[in-house]
Amino acid sequence: MPRPTGRVLTLLELLQSGGTRTVAELADRLGVEGRTVRRYVAQLIDLDVPVESVRGRYGGYRLAPGYRLPPLMLSDDEALAVLLGLVAGRRAGLTTTERTANETASAKIRRVLPKHLARRLDTLLEALAFTDQPGELDHPDAGLLLTLADAVRHRRPVSIRYTDRDGRRSERTLHAYGIVAHAGRWYVTGKDAQVGEDRTFRLDRIAAASALPGSFETPVGPGPAQRVLSGFATAEYRHEVTLRIHGTVEQIRAHLPPSVASLEEHEPAAGQDPAAEHWLRVELRAQQLDWLPRILASLDRPFVIERPDELRDLVTALADRLTSYACQARQRGTNVMRRHN
Q1: Would you say the C-alpha torsion 231, 234, 239, 241 has a positive or negative sign?
Q2: Which residues have CB under 8 Å from 210's CB, separation 6+?
């Protein structure tokens, strides 16, 4: 049975969650009688915790608004969520100029965490990578994240139960290289032992994960974030597109990021400025082609379509429409001027 001090702290935690709590609700959560709840409330007030009494049919107890309440008590999942939010905010640039508030907040939370949880969170943060599109992240399962992070750090195989985008369920053995946050979602990337190839899996489609005996070697090459982006760019789709575009990498990447297309860069000739414009080979895969002509037009750079022929037809059709619109506008302007004359 919890000691009275433990119940008082539990009461404090319940009140921190916000709103008004009835005496009956608090008594049920604490496993005590109503008069004991009132005694615990009196102890909190003696400690200068501003607990307010609310009268009426739906009355009870609540904390005074705007009060900075010590101590801050977080569950394991809450601590994980807060730390991940701070890391994501720093990565996205959503911090103060000198990042002081972000760093001191992280340090305070780490300082009060139990040692076992602090170690697991450190393991997760070491295994975590962000792309250039952090986005508003979804809410991953804390236990799943920590299990995968432990597998990454110690290079242990992990068994996962996965459901793909077509609803097919399977059990995989994964050699996880890292966990990546990209465009609002969480991914784990690594080698699928059954097929012997690198794969990327969405965490929200993993039902369970458990560590397996053994170990593996992490291959030399791109980091986890780059592997995820490359996987998106080379995924199987209906159309395979190959282009040559005259421009700089920065100009092309502004419209075709790494998650969409891969670039084949050419080393500049001796004495040539590395940032100078030159022809780059662009490859991408797409389920539909109707969006690509607008992207190519917005690039405003010379380009050559190597394949498919269907894309050439779509670009020509877009050019014809734009020419038609421009001619119609000019003709309307001419007619207006004639009427006024």
Answers
A1: positive
A2: 147, 158, 159
Nearest alpha-carbon partner for 17 in 83, 76, 80, 61: 61
Is there a contact between 308 and 241 (Cβ–Cβ < 8 Å)? yes
pLDDT per position as a tens digit, 203-238: 889 999 999 999 998 888 788 888 877 776 666 667
Give the whole-angstrom CA distance, residue 216 versus residue 177: 10
CA–CA separation, 20 vs 255, rounded Å? 51
Q: Helix 115-127 vs helix 142-154: angle between axes, to the nearest 10 degrees?
A: 70
**Are the beta carbons of 135 and 85 closer than 8 angstroms?**
no
Of 179, 171, 178, the residue nearest 212 (C-alpha): 171
Within the chain, which residues score under 50 in pLDDT?
Answer: 1, 94-98
Sign of CA dihedral 93, 94, 99, 105: negative
pLDDT of the residue at 266: 56
- For residue 286, CA distances in Å to 113, 234, 235, 261 come to 46, 10, 9, 10
What angle (nearest 5°) sits at the alpha carbon of residue 5, between those of residues 4 and 7?
Answer: 65
Give the pLDDT confidence score for residue 96 in this predicted structure. 44
Whether residue 44 contacts residue 38, with contact meaning beta carbons closer than 8 Å, is answered with no
Cβ neighbours for 308, distance < 8 A, ≥ 6 positions apart: 239, 240, 241, 289
Q: How far apart are the first and last CA of the chain?
A: 97
Distance CA 320, CA 24 (A): 74
Residue 206 pLDDT: 92
- Single-letter amino acid code for the residue at 1: M
Tokens 């290289």 belong to residue: 177
Q: How far apart are CA 255 and CA 197, in angstroms?
A: 30
Which tokens hold the place of 121?
């969170």
Contact present, 61 and 53 (Cβ < 8 Å): yes
Which amino acid, 171?
E
